[in-house]
Design goal:
This protein is mainly alpha-helical. The chain folds into 2 domains: 1-72, no CATH class; 73-116. The protein contains 5 helices and 2 strands. The protein has helices at residues 2-22, 34-40, 50-72, 74-101, 107-115, and strands spanning 26-30, 45-49. Strands 1-2 form a two-stranded antiparallel ribbon. It is elongated, with a radius of gyration of 31 Å.
């Protein structure tokens, strides 16, 4: 299984290198459309190789997806935390009740009850 993972990562690396080499031309990214940028006085632009734009878009997409999923699963994590607290409280109550039950018993019998 480890070799399959290494083979996949190697193939992915070859594909990414091929994409980077094929898309080395410069492209200009602008923050706003020309008319709106002139109106607001914010006409920012930058020239980057196309592969940087492609890989950057992939990274930004992954980050947005991870944050979205983390926020979506917040309810599940909160429910799990609540259930764990209740389980701990129940275990503590069972231990307390077993202790009361064992007060009037012989020590050997109390130890046997705790073991089961």
């Amino acid at each position: 299984m480890r070799y399959l993972r290494y083979a996949f990562l190697g193939a992915l690396g070859v594909v990414l290198i091929a994409v980077c080499l094929a898309n080395r031309d410069l492209v200009t990214l602008t923050l706003l459309p020309a008319a709106l940028g002139d109106l607001l006085g914010m006409n920012f632009s930058i020239s980057l190789p196309l592969f940087v734009v492609i890989l950057g878009a992939i990274v930004v997409g992954l980050l947005v997806g991870f944050v979205w999923e983390w926020l979506r699963e917040h309810r599940h994590r909160a429910d799990k935390s609540k259930a764990e607290k209740e389980l701990h409280k129940t275990k503590r109550e069972v231990r307390r009740l077993k202790g009361k039950q064992a007060e009037n018993k012989d020590e050997v019998l109390a130890l046997l009850d705790e073991a089961s």
